[in-house]
Automatic annotation (TrEMBL):
One of its GO terms (molecular function) is CoA-transferase activity. This is CoA transferase. The keyword Transferase applies. InterPro entries: CoA-transferase_III_domain, CoA-Trfase_fam_III, CoA-Trfase_III_dom3_sf, CoA-Trfase_III_dom_1_sf. Signal peptide: none annotated. It holds the Pfam family CoA_transf_3. It comes from the Bacteria.
């Protein structure tokens, strides 16, 4: 992402009304905003609750909010009131996209359900992010990332074999839901060029969590066996695990026989690749414990970062296990422009690199309700 403010972007001219809070929706709309969409983030009078999800805080706003709300105008509206609803409808009159993550039935209660909005604004792409959708056995119930991880099998395959089912250490379901929502919006905008019509997008944490279960679901469908926790090891590939090195941990992800042979060459033990116990991946899986013992002995002599670099240069997938600080200071992180900085603002930049229309920083995350009065004047609304 460019580290200076610039106009343009692939979505320039696209107007997005963002009624979402917390993570999935805001992450989706930040993606759109980074690439040029004009995003109007509407918070309730109490604010997006992530403003208070700290410490750390800066000027009273938590880092959690700051991390997913750049490139947005900031408004505060009480959408349960008639003036708030009138303000919303004035914004929707020329909007391309509406993103919301209300509990299903909330907009309907206000007389602004998907059917009503589609009649009034036929070109509108309306994206609803919810826990489970509006109907079915769990329809209408609230959804949360960690609960989705538990319910949808992610925790069951995460953790060590002798340990407890473990939450993935980041809100992976919320974030992949935001990604899928952004993808769905772009698909619908593309289709609208042909049909002239918007549509309703039903994106749920439940569905998106299930979609992450590869290869565990594929293994289950074929074998009938319930997948188990394997720690950092892979259920289908060996060696594919974390190993201790002289100065830290190294991860090896050896996916074929050529890579395994090259690994053993670089470790000075080419004969191991010819050992009948380790001839191919199926053999290595059967004899994974014996192979792990050999690798631990060999890797103990090497620096994790140095060996990983050497292995990569020889086509063997490997990486040192870094913490967040080490990653942010890594020279390739800087080279790829993945730390976005302006003044005291620092954040992860957009990973989506376009050659002619790159992502850009145009607006810092908004102060609460900072743009409400200005937008009201632009819409010629008498709103106080």
């Amino acid at each position: 992402m460019q580290e200076h403010r610039q106009a343009g972007g692939a979505l320039q001219g696209c107007k997005v009304v963002d009624l979402s809070r917390v993570l999935g929706g805001p992450y989706c709309t930040q993606i759109l905003g980074d690439h040029g969409a004009e995003v109007f983030k509407v918070e309730p009078p109490s604010g997006d609750e992530t403003r208070g999800w700290g410490p750390p805080f800066r000027d009273g706003t938590a880092s959690y909010f700051i991390g997913v709300n750049r490139n947005k105008h900031g408004l505060s509206l009480d959408l349960s009131s008639e003036p708030g609803q009138a303000f919303l409808e004035a914004m929707l009159a020329d909007a391309d996209v509406l993103v919301e993550n209300f509990k299903p039935g909330t907009l309907e209660k206000w007389g602004l359900g998907p059917d009503v909005l589609q009649r009034r604004y036929p070109r509108l792409v309306h994206c609803r992010i919810s826990g489970f959708g509006a109907d079915g056995p769990l329809g209408g119930l609230p959804g949360y990332d960690a609960c989705a991880q538990a319910l949808c099998g992610l925790m069951s395959v995460n953790g060590t074999p002798d340990g407890d089912a473990t939450r993935v250490g980041l809100p992976v379901v919320d974030m992949v839901t935001g990604l899928n929502a952004a993808l769905a919006i772009l698909l619908a905008i593309h289709e609208r060029q042909r049909s002239g019509m918007g549509q309703f997008l039903d994106i749920t944490l439940f569905d998106c969590a299930i979609s992450l279960l590869h290869p565990h679901a594929a293994n289950y469908f074929m074998s009938g066996k319930v997948p188990q926790r394997t720690g950092n090891a892979h259920p289908n590939i060996c060696p594919y695990d974390t190993f201790p090195a002289a100065d830290g941990d190294i991860f090896l992800a050896v996916g074929n026989n050529r890579q395994f042979a090259q690994l053993m060459d670089q470790l000075g033990q080419p004969g191991v690749a010819r050992d009948e116990r380790f001839i191919d991946n199926a053999d290595r899986l059967v004899n994974r414990d014996a192979l792990k013992e050999i690798l631990i002995g060999l890797l103990a002599r090497h620096s994790a970062s140095g060996l990983a670099q050497t292995l990569l240069e020889h086509g063997v997938p490997a990486a040192p296990v870094l913490n967040v600080e080490q990653l942010m200071q890594h020279p390739h992180t800087r080279h790829r422009g993945m730390v976005l900085e302006e003044g005291s603002y620092r954040a992860i930049a957009s990973p989506i690199k376009l050659s002619r229309t790159p992502a850009s920083l145009r607006r810092l995350p908004p102060e609460f309700g900072a743009d409400t009065a200005r937008i009201a004047r632009q819409l010629e609304l008498d709103f106080t």
